[in-house]
Structures are given as C-alpha cells and as structure tokens.
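DATA SHEET
Item: assembly model
Revision: 1
Owner: S.N.
Input lines:
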Amino acid sequence: MLTLKENQLDAFFALIEKKRELYLPVEQNTGKSEFKRWVEGDKYSTALRTTRSAKNFFFAKSENLYDIEMNDKKVEVIDTRKDCNDFVIFGVRACDVRSFDVLDNVFLADPVDSYYKNRRDHGLVISMACSKPAATCFCALFDIDATSPNGDIQAWHVDDTYYFDPITEKGDAFVEEFKECFTEADDAPVRKQKEETLNKIEKLPFVKLNLDGFATEEKLTELFDRPEWKDLSEACLGCGTCTYVCPTCQCFDVKDYKVSEGKTKRYRVWDSCMYSNFTKMAAANPRLTQTERFRQRFMHKLVYYPIKNEGMYGCVGCGRCLVSCPVSMNIVKVIKTMGDN
Amino acid sequence: MSTEIMKRAAELLKSGEVSLVLGWRVGDFDYDLTPSKFRTAEDLEKNCIYNDFSAANLSKYLIKTLRKEEGKVLVFLKSCDTYSFNQLLKEHKFDRERVYIIGVPCDEKVDFDKVKTILGEDIIKMKSDGTTVTVTTTEGEEKTIAKSEVILQKCVNCKSRKHVVYDELFGDEGEVLNSHRFDEVAKIEAMKPEERYEFWRGELSRCIRCNACRDVCPACTCEHCVFDNEESGVEQKVASNDFEENQFHIIRAFHVAGRCTDCGECSRVCPEHIPLHLLNRKIISDIDEFYGDYQAGDDVDSIAPLTMFNQVDVEPSIVKSRGDN
C-alpha cells in the first residue's frame, strides 16, 4: 500500500496546495475542529469529527445563484458563477463520505443541480478511517464501515504512518500525479488497526438498534400516526441546529437580496424543516405545529428517503445531533421509541 | 438529593395540588437530559432527575405549557433560572398563581462536551458527585476529572446562588455572588477597535444561523420574531453576505437589553461555541454604569432603567464620546 510518514505530511499538503485548493480539519480556538483551507503552519487535526459536516463543500451554507438586472423594461439574468477550481478534501470520515452519496441521490437526480454537480466534479475526497469511535457513533447501524471509509482515496493513520488506497479513477490519477510523495509498504498495520477498530465498534451502544419497519411503505401510515411524536417533540425548540450540523440534511431556500434599485441577487441558503416558515405556501407552512415539523425530519430520514432510494437511509450515524441538540433530543431517541427496541 | 426532590414533587402530583411537573428526563448517557413534562408520580420518580447535568433553564417552557395545560404546573428552578422566571412574570407571560416552584440547589453544572474533549469521546457513563466527574468508557475503563475543570461556561461566573422566587426550597438559601462576570467584557473593551472588530468577526463567522440562541433565550418571547418574517428582509436563514449575517447577534443583544438576566443559555446551546453571552454582558455592564446597578429578574415590581425616562439619565453624547476611543 502507498504510505507517507507523518513528518512528511505538511510537505505533501504544500505540494497539493500548489496545484489544487486543499481543505482539511484544523483545530480552532474553541478546541473543536472544522474544515478549512490549508495554509502553511496549519496542523491536520485527527479529531474524530468536525463540528460542522463536510457537506458545505458541495452544498454550501449560502451560495449566490445569479443576478437579475432590470433596465427600463429589459430584464437581464446574469450568471455569476465563478470558475470552480479543483479542490481536495482531506480527512473525511466514513459517515461524511456516505453523506455525499445521500446528497448525490437528491442533487444529481434529474433535473441535475448544476451548481452542486460543478462542485462535485471538481472535488476529490481523501477519506480517513476511524480508529477511536465515540460512544455517540452509530454509522455501523447503516452498514457504513468506518475502517474502509471510501471516497476517491481511502486513508488510514497508524502510528507515525499514513496509508493510502485509491479506489476511483480520479483517485488513481491523483496518486499518479503525486507519486513522488509515496513509498510502498506492507499493509499489515492497517489490517490490524481495522480489526481492532471493528471490535470497538461492535461494543458501541447504538450500532445494533432495530430498524425493522422503518423503511417500508406498509408501516408508513402507522408510524406517521404514532402518538409518541407529541412527547418526543415537546422539548424541541424549533431551532435548526440538528439540520445544520447534519451531513445529510439537504433542504434549501431560494431568496432574493435587493442590492440596489433594479438589481437583485438571487441566492440559496440552507433551510430547516424545523422552522415555522419552512415550505411556506400561499396558505402558510403546511405543518402547523412543532410536532409535525419534528416528525417530518425523522420520517424523511428513516422512512421516506430510504423508500425512494433503494433502502439507503437518510442518516449516516455521525452522532452530531446527539452532541449539538440544545435539549438532547435526537434520532437515536426517536429510533428507540418508534422502533422495536 | 434528586430522589428527595422527586419524592416531594410526586407527592404534590399525587395530591392533585399540581397537574404536571416540568423537569429533566433521563437519556441514554446520564448527561443527555431532555426538558420534559411528567404527568404521573411513577414516571417522575423513574425518569426525572436533577443532577450536575440539569443545565437547561426550564422557565421559558412555562409559557407554552401553561397555555396548553389546565391546572397548576410544578417547575424545578435553579437559582439563575429564578431570575428568568421573575423577568417573564414581569412581562406578564403567565400567572404566578398557576406555578409551583421548587427551588433546587445548584453549585455549578458540568459541561459534558468539555468532559469528552478532555477524557475522550468513548464515554458511555458519566457521573458527578459534586466534586469529581467519573466516566466509564465503552471498553469498561473508569476515568475521573475534577468537576472544577469541566464547569459549564455559563456557570463559571455564577452571579447568584440565591433563589429570588420559590414556593419551596431544597437545600440552604444561597447568596448573590461577586461573580467577576464583567472581567471578560473589560478585556474586550480594552482591545483596540480593529482588534475588537476582528475578534467578533472571527467568533461570529462560525455562526450557522440555527437560531438556537434565540429559541432557548427566556428573553426572546415574541409571538412572531422579526427574523421569522420573510417580509422583513432579515429572515432567520443565512444572509446574502456574512457581514449582514454577523449583525443578527448584535441586533438580538440590543433587543433583549435590560431584560436579559445573564442566564447564559445562549452560549450553552451554541453548536459553534460562540461566546454570545459576552454581548449581553457588555450591555448589562453599560446599563449598570449609566443608570446604576440593575439586575433583570431580581424582582417583579421595579421599573427597568431602559423603560423609564429620568432627568438625570445620561445624554447620548456619552455614548458618542466612548465610541471615539
């Protein structure tokens, strides 16, 4: 397997950054890690997860779509898209890598979202296997293998060595381009780490929850009508924390910003089904209470999405909502209450 | 202590004196408590707990609970929560007669996220005995850390151990503390304007506009928030440019000025760990300086400085002259 010593990592990053934009997790002054553009001196953070997911690279928090200019009665639509440079995201965990598949099913399905596709085409994902899973991790519940994290190139960090395994054409081309950085070495340490990590994952509290009955149309109405939604949602503040830290939440709103008389900027922003004015129509938000909004979020992830996408769940078990929800209500508590657990 | 408190609340529930209890429901890990309603003594004694992780301020939940429910509601309030309660009462958000308050003693809460940052994320059990936090990992290993090292940010400068309102109190009554809570504000005030601007731009740039700070805030009780009104042009979602975006927090701080009790919930719930309470504290410290010491929620009768005009009030020029520095 291709390897790189830890002390050569910064030189590797510098080389990538010469040819591409490089993004990786870096520890912030809060002690938490976030993805950021690498600059000389930044140290790659091996933290288990970033506070925000990696979805921002393809589905940005805020993105300008186009400008609209009106002169007299002439309306002009101006495509303001900037050329997207090739970029590399390093250190993406298996859960976040799977989230890209979840997003692809939405944004790359007909009609293709050209903004999203553009970023997807220009991005290369170097994933990083987990070796110290958190008690709040449950990716294994959704058949995600944290020790084989996918992406264009899979990577492992064992002691002072990084191991790389390209698994797509894009990945192959990348390692070919940077081949002078790597040396070949035996992958026995990787196999050992994988085995040890899988043993740890086996012992995590949520990886064996019962999902029977969620992703089926037969049970849909029954689940929808369950009285427990009311109790589960009673503490919900209606904030958007869970949806915004979630790697798979994909809802957005398109909004206009009036720059000046006759000039408008049309942009899109993350939206949240937890908000009172979400999907506002002529007759207001069809979901009048927080209970209905709360139910929507979990029904979407555990029922509607998998029904439409060959059983793939809309949750990747990253555990971010377990950590960030202000009232500690989360998808695990929903699965436990609504499922046969 | 938790067992005794729950026993007493269960008595009140059984006797019919109160029809439901607002408390903290146990979760999967001891620390992940969810504010919840308890309607039976059995549910209460089994699933409600008051411990070093019961950080959530329950006072705001009274507004919607009392609208929906009949009868009297029992609520557990820590000392800082009682200030929020009083402030809500002052703003006529509910009737005092419909609430039965059990004041619960508090000597600072534990930040479970901080514990995990220091001791590792593989924690399945977390207990605090008041001085030491003990955790158990997925591998069955036990680790400990002094509670003083993992205090929740909002408790670091606890302003008061005194319950300003209650019907019944557990533990001894505490006192208003010399909190040094304006020390951090002073540090930011001492910065040069450019430094200060950079500091806040750096902090606020992490905002994802989830609105958790607003939604948890006991002072944010508008029926329809201006940021939820898509006609306002300042809707809750991220703005088209990040400078406009940053203004949200400053506008919100001004909106709760004079009513914010400094309960610190905004900073506790922020998923991006932005020290939002410092904006509020700055305003509290200015109000103290301009109008004399004032603590929102201290009582329900006094007229708040910002809702009263007085001939000795400071002139706007003082604000301008400070701005020149």
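QC remark: Chain B has a mean pLDDT of 92.
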